[in-house]
Amino acid sequence: MKFSIVIPTWNDGRQVGATLKRLRGTSDKEKTEIIVVDGGSKDDTIKSARQYADTVIPLGGANRGAQFNKGAGAATGEMLLFLHADAQLPGNWQSVLEEFWSSESGANAAAAVFSVHYGGGFFYALAALGANLRVSMSQVAYGESSLCTRRDTYDKAGGFPDYPMMDDVALCKRLKKQGSVVRLKEKIRPAAHHLRRVGPIRNAIRSFIVRLRFALGENPESLFRRYYGGERKATIAPERWDGEALLKARIRGERPR
């Protein structure tokens, strides 16, 4: 069972090296490949990633859903594992997933995700409890939980939509049509920068509003700008996500299509 781990990056130079180094240390190299898809970082993200990743793919703009899809297209493993650049998988992640996918539960599942753990403190524990209960009840997980699925299941679902956010929610809804999305008891530790910046309660309220707006049909790019405001300024590439094609178009003086 070979795992292809796909990691989207965007100005993650401060943490991606440590994440990938730890991932290498907890993985069977013969049965694991790491693919990093960068969305136009201006720091040393790509340089750091190349020290540990098998493949680093530069794109013309930051769009998480498109980055995940591009990485999945380059993957050679039969199992796809989608991971955020600042999240720490449990040390036994590979044996856990191998056991799950070889079990009866895995045979009937479309995807598996890990339980989140935000660290110590009552409110962070409460936030993690709420996030994990939401996954168990709705079978819809955010990308912070990481998501593992079979390659053929992913292809049948149509993959990630090209959304800068809510791509994870959209994929889970697609996968649910093919089987259950199972939450594993083993814990992943996402950095959860936004949660720590604004606080667990305010973050929960904002996340609920974003999900509601998305359900009511608001454009994911509009949601991205509304959610992050001045904290992050996305360089959203228009439609085409091939960095080389975008560069050639600029050289020719054309507008990307």
Question: Key features?
Answer:
five-stranded mixed beta sheet; single chain; three-stranded mixed beta sheet; alpha/beta; 257 residues; globular; 12 helices; Spore Coat Polysaccharide Biosynthesis Protein SpsA, Chain A
Distance between the termini: 39 Å
> How would you characterize the largest beta sheet?
5 strands, mixed
Q: Quickly name the level 1 CATH class of the domain at 3-120 and 131-191.
A: Alpha Beta
Order of helices and strands: EHEHEHEEHHEHEHHEHHHH
CATH superfamily of the domain at 3-120 and 131-191: Spore Coat Polysaccharide Biosynthesis Protein SpsA, Chain A
In helices, the fraction of residues equals 40-55%
The count of strands amounts to: 8
Shape: globular
Strand order within the widest beta sheet = 3-2-1-4-7
**Rg:** 18 Å
Summed up, the helix count is: 12
CATH topology of the domain at 3-120 and 131-191: Spore Coat Polysaccharide Biosynthesis Protein SpsA, Chain A
Q: Taking all residues together, what is the mean pLDDT?
A: 87
How much beta, percentage-wise?
15-25%
Looking at how many chains there are and whether they match, the oligomeric state comes to single chain
How does the helix and strand content classify structurally?
alpha/beta
Query: Which residues form runs of ≥5 with pLDDT under 50?
Result: 230-251
Summarize the structure.
The protein has 257 residues and is α/β, with parallel strands linked by helices. The protein is 45% helix and 18% strand. It has twelve helices and eight strands.
